[in-house]
Write a structure and sequence with these properties.
28% of the residues lie in helices and 29% in strands. The protein has eight helices and 14 strands. The strands form three sheets. Strands 1-2-3-4-5-6 form a six-stranded mixed β-sheet, covered by helices on one side. A six-stranded mixed β-sheet has the order 7-8-9-10-13-14. The protein has a two-stranded antiparallel ribbon with strand order 11-12. A hairpin with a 5-residue loop joins strand 13 and strand 14. It is globular.
């Protein structure tokens, strides 16, 4: 498996290209294309001759989805988001204008809706959808045997904001408690900032430690 991170837009969100390998013709997905400037992402895909077969989104905040239609148009691939974030997806133009003053067109409807426990295949690779609400109602993590794309649920040293209109602090605590079962060796690739491991976060992330103590 190969994974490449691209940092997007004024909120510095992470977009990932995951592929089976860098052999030409390998299958790939683009996760969280959060800007309308995707030239570096497209150049990487085409330099290695990757075949993009899907777009997966960890949640529907504008800084993670605003480039979705550009990906779909270029690669004729379907896009997926959790069913509980469809309403936020539909508000992408208004949210983009509100937060960064940029006008963008409405996104087309998602091609598929994710639910907890869904399996996503990328050739020989398998990812499980973990529904981890808190930052938004439909936040998810994509988890394989070796890595997790954690979106705005779990960052290096911290977690996603829970003071937004659609956020839920109690749901975030419940989600953090749930993911404590992840193996220490799991590599974590968040929606913002650098990567980490579950071992490092279990040891150093105070939010995970609080969740492990039952919120105390």
């Amino acid at each position: 498996m190969e994974i490449r991170r691209f940092v997007m837009g004024p909120l510095r969100s992470n977009c990932y290209v995951i592929s089976e390998s860098l052999v030409r013709g390998s299958l790939a997905v683009i996760v969280d294309p959060g800007d309308t400037y995707l030239d570096e992402v497209f150049a990487y895909v085409e330099e290695h001759g990757l075949r993009v077969v899907a777009n997966w989104n960890t949640h529907a905040h504008f800084d993670h989805v605003v480039g979705v239609d550009l990906v779909r148009e270029r690669y004729q691939c379907p896009s997926f988001v959790h069913v509980d974030d469809v309403e936020i997806w539909e508000r992408t133009p208004a949210n983009t204008l509100r937060w960064i003053g940029k006008e963008v067109p409405p996104l087309r409807a998602p091609d598929g809706l994710l639910r907890d426990g869904d399996e996503l295949r990328l050739g020989s690779l398998k990812f499980t959808v973990w529904h981890t609400p808190g930052h938004s109602p439909g936040c998810v993590c994509f988890v394989s045997d070796t890595l997790a794309i954690t979106g705005d649920t779990l960052f290096k040293g911290t977690v996603g904001r829970t003071d937004l209109e659609e956020s839920d602090p109690q749901a975030m605590e419940d989600s953090l408690r749930r993911i404590l079962v992840w193996d220490d060796a799991l590599q974590l690739y968040p929606g913002h900032g650098g990567d980490s491991t579950m071992f490092e976060e279990r040891e150093k992330n105070r939010f995970l430690r609080i969740a492990a103590r039952g919120g105390k």
